[in-house]
Amino acid sequence: QVQLVESGGGLVQAGGSLRLSCVDSGRFFSNYAMAWFRQAPGKEREFVAAINWSGSRTFYADSVKGRFTISRDNAKKTVYLQMNSLEPEDTAVYYCNADRRGLQVTGATMEPQKYDYWGQGTQVTVSS
Questions:
Q1: Contacts of residue 62, Cβ cutoff 8 Å, sequence gap at least 6
Q2: Taking the C-alpha atoms of 85, 3, 29 and 99 in order, what is their torsion angle to the nearest 10 degrees?
Q3: Alpha-carbon distance 68 to 66, whole Å?
Q4: What does DSSP say about strands 10-13 and 122-127: parallel, antiparallel, or unpaired?
Q5: Contact 92/112 with Cβ under 8 angstroms?
Q6: Residues near 75 by Cβ (< 8 Å), separated by ≥ 6?
Q7: Coil vs helix vs strand at 112
């Protein structure tokens, strides 16, 4: 069973940066495709970024493309989200998840409704 714990959120000014981490606290680590999502109050959870098993392929929502970078360190069982040039619109609780369907990123990987489990997330607040 995969257990994911997000961390690294905080309060920053617009234009600032944060790096989020998502660590697998489960007993075993598998090289699943991974994804980051976010949810602002009163809004639906939305896709942010995804990465395949090796980190060789990445995918981003248009809203964060060019500003955010997803990466992974399988030896540390951790996925990262480097967020630069943060904007107030980025304010949300950020969640990571593992696509247990397999190694590659698919359309389903990027669909929040395809996941049954969510961790506590980490709050990112960007002030103007």
A1: none
A2: -70
A3: 6
A4: parallel
A5: no
A6: none
A7: helix
Cβ neighbours, 10 Å, residue 41: 7
- Which residue shows structure tokens 């600032």? 16
Q: What sign results for the dihedral spanned by CA atoms 110, 52, 100, 2?
A: negative
For 61-71, the pLDDT digits (tens) are 999 999 999 99
Range scoring the smallest mean pLDDT among 14-18, 86-90, 114-118: 114-118
Does residue 75 sit in helix, strand or coil?
Answer: helix
Report d(CA 52, CA 21) in Å as an integer: 16
CA Rg, the chain, in Å? 13
